[in-house]
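Risk register update: the risk of archive-format incompatibility is retired. Evidence:
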Amino acid sequence: MRLSAYFMPTLKETPAEAEIVSHRLMLRAGMVRQASAGIYSWLPLGFRVLKRIEQIVREEQDRAGCQEVLMPTIQSAELWKKSGRYEDYGKEMLRITDRKDREMLYGPTNEELITDIFASAVSSYKALPKLLYHIQWKFRDEVRPRFGVMRGREFLMKDAYSFDVDFEASKRSYNKFFACYLRTFARMGLKAIPMEAESGPIGGNMSHEFIILASTGESAVYCHKDYVDFDVLARDIDYEGDLEPIVKHWTSLYAATDEKHDAARFETIPADKRVATRGIEVGHIFYFGTKYSKPLGARVSTPAGEQVDVHMGSYGIGVSRLAGAIIEASHDDAGIIWPDSVAPFKVGLINLKAGDAACDKACADIYGKLENARIEVLYDDRDERPGAKFADMDLIGLPWQLIVGPRGLAAGKVELKRRATGERQELSIESALAKVVA
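Archived output:
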């Protein structure tokens, strides 16, 4: 993509309403624009990141044996009244009446609807377990939406639901999602630590939040330092095997959110191993037994011929929230530093002297070779000062910058910069291409 044709309305000044780093940088980099309080339009650069995150989430859900569905944003209030949550949910729920005076709502979550779908189709234990998920926009009418996409009213979420015949089977499903979430966040370049948590309005009695450590995080967290060194992707995960050892490995040391913090237990950790910082919740998993299956009639027959309410769990990842969370965890004074896996483009190609025949020819050649190698490249072909081009590339945070100028070309060289480290190398065009294509 040529930057001269790309819609990327960057800002030099930080908007006054942006309170945290991710909000400031997403606005300045032209990733999003606010439509109304807590509601954002995703512009091309931001939308590419959103789709990258969504795809990693989808791949890991599928890998764990989940099946994707798509449920509507607008739901009938009738199901929510059956579960008892229609009145309990409060003013965060956006309630709607259609032209025939039927009570509807904009779904803040989907336990009721997925349970109704399951109940209408499954009646035997032989069909279990079932792990179903979708990726859909949600709406919760926050009293005070702030921090950009980190705490908006409308947000993109992956929510999954497990259906099992009893507690033991449900625990196996819970463990699948526990392991799946560790892989999901690690693939995005994040170190997410599972911490025991409250269940909130979802309900349930087994619950973990997945928290990334960031000094700009929204809440205090406390954990053992060794968690930071655990390597998730070094081992393969057999989702049909026993996952309890993985869960125990990741819950054996102290880790707690502020609500669950036990100061006395924390003090027993050696001082050099204590981490007290702030964190950002990026995922939440719950087991809630028959909380929804019982009132909504999701029952199956057992081998003994009995009818039992299925045991369920709910598993959420804030897809749009992750775009902000990744920035909070990975940035510097110049701008965003995208991990390769979620970057909107892998390479930023910078022509330092647009209009110069040699520079234009070299850039066109490099651009074509990168595209042929299926490397996504953003080519800055604008007639701008080099300083402005460097500033924009640092701001949007692409992993590699490939810089082409008259002086370097005269020596048969281009400059290659790694955004994360700032390391610069003068290389031949062939060597530079080999490095970014690898």
